[in-house]
């Protein structure tokens, strides 16, 4: 009986953005049964984007980023409690306090955590931080406010770049060490990463590319690091920004298709088991999921994007309380944004799913542009720098699989728009941080090899 | 084909009180409807939204060789548009003046109160002349630094300019255009003169900020200052007056929603959004493609007039549930009342505050008020649609 889906017991594991939005959406959808939300952090759901921006700048405190509730989801919040497993047959979530939590339908939204510095002893040095939680941000903000001599940021992805930007805005000396050829190269490809490198240097960042950090030094407190090129950076604060690890270990024995790249699910957010069979009562949403997307060749996507967490949570919630024929797919075009060095960077689509790019509007020189990404003659992504209002136009091109290069005629079109150049998306293995967008079915770099004949 | 006369019928003054059936006819005729003069009308939400975001759609009248002077940023394409709009935004909004508009709330409430001092039960008032017009005029004068007593002067210029900017197919427009040009030059001269008086002697207004900008790279030329100041003064009041008047008319026609708002003042912001969808002040905008384009399967040649009927998009059932119903609690109300894309209304934050303050203050008086004339007499303008007078009995 379809009506039964509006009743019963739903458990959500994960009390961050996706978990909260799913809980709210379940009630919006008319779910009247019992709802339990389990979260391992002791706090009610909070927002993470401000942690690497306003909080580090001292414009907001770490504990002020609580997520507003759009409606009271009338849930039993089990905060500060870690889930340790799922028994799919008995339909129970196992909690660390030993109590089994029965469910009729389960939503997994456990997200990611910061990838730790690989050497645990070095990671424990005072002054070494990662940035993912409210505590991380609070501690780091306090340290930055105290005016350190120099901050070392390991990894030039979005988080690392935002931290470096915040440090410079506070007038602090900062060194960024990036294994790839430029900051943001893993997310945006070679051309825009050149702009990112210029922005770092123009704002006084000591940017080191093509290097890794081989050791952190200190005697109790962090004092500096050694780099693979033999140089040494003296600093008293170190932020490890090496990307994220998906919180899937607790599902190791569950029989679900959970691995380092996330939990596989179908387009309706229904989790697969380890044999690739879809479950009927286990759903996945947010950073921890990987799902097939038709616009990107039905490749499994895993996204660490705020917008994806919200949209996927709403689809999952809808599908949890509606029968099969009324269920909806999660087909939203991925989007994300970042602010750093005074620039507003917004992305739509999947820039790494590309072989070529053009600058369709504006220019690198003007630091205001729209870069369009194509894959095999089709528009697959766009990134705007200080040109966010153009994003909807490019989203439409992506949604309609418009031919690449995109149509000409924009008033502020760059001369360069006639010349598609290789998108130069590097192998993720060559980056110091994990990708925030991963196509988990294949390695995009394999198809991006461009042979440049010589002579 | 009947649909080829739609724009002529929409702009026909006889249909001003209720153009919505024509908009419904427009949407039923397809997303893109060819007109007898060779131009196109677009009245469906998604197509309008897409065209408003399309960087190939020009707003610059020079694209068609219509004028030679450089227009204000409202009628410029990027990158010129971006530069001038950004400069115009510096003394008005974020990031350089984040609190500017919000800080005017108290002043706006005060102006509202003063205007209402003469309202007495049993008396007949004209919502337009006694309230909806003087409120935004006073506000924009204070904001820009224009003497309020010069209102008769700039009202004549403003009338001429707005008439020239209207959509008037099949009309002889030379005289109107000439009058508009003349008004633009005179009004620009007047405002530049005002601004020059503040050079080196600034007060807390936008004209002062423009002429006293310390960074030479961020200064407007005298021509740009004239165009920008004219635009801000006109756009700063010609639209808000319609928003307020349309709001009062809508609420008096729908007593159940009037009661709902009287009971729950917190609904006001959402009610104003719904007004912007349901009875927007700006009904029509025009764009010119810079390249041959395709809209919903219809090829449109470069240089062809494409008229976007924003107010029709706001009533598109493909986008809004029960679009012809006024619902101040409507969720997901991403209307086209302020346009969209790079030309998204510059003054939207101010218009919202003014409309919320105005309607909020009027609410206690409207419970027993009645419309003297329904429909009221409308302004000539089809593009900026609203009552010329709105007499009500308090």
TrEMBL record, chain A:
Organism per entry: Streptomyces dengpaensis
Domain FAD/NAD(P)-binding: 9-313
Keywords annotated in UniProt: FAD, Flavoprotein, Oxidoreductase
Names of required cofactors: FAD
Pfam families reported in the protein's UniProt record: Pyr_redox_2, Reductase_C
Domain Reductase C-terminal: 336-413
UniProt KW Oxidoreductase keyword: yes
Protein name as catalogued: FAD-dependent oxidoreductase
Automatic annotation (TrEMBL), chain B:
UniProt protein name: Cytochrome P450
Chain coiled-coil ranges: none
Matches recorded under SUPFAM superfamilies: Cytochrome P450
Organism: Streptomyces dengpaensis
Name of one Pfam family that matches: p450
The family this protein is said to belong to: Belongs to the cytochrome P450 family.
InterPro entries according to UniProt: Cyt_P450 (IPR001128), Cyt_P450_B (IPR002397), Cyt_P450_sf (IPR036396)
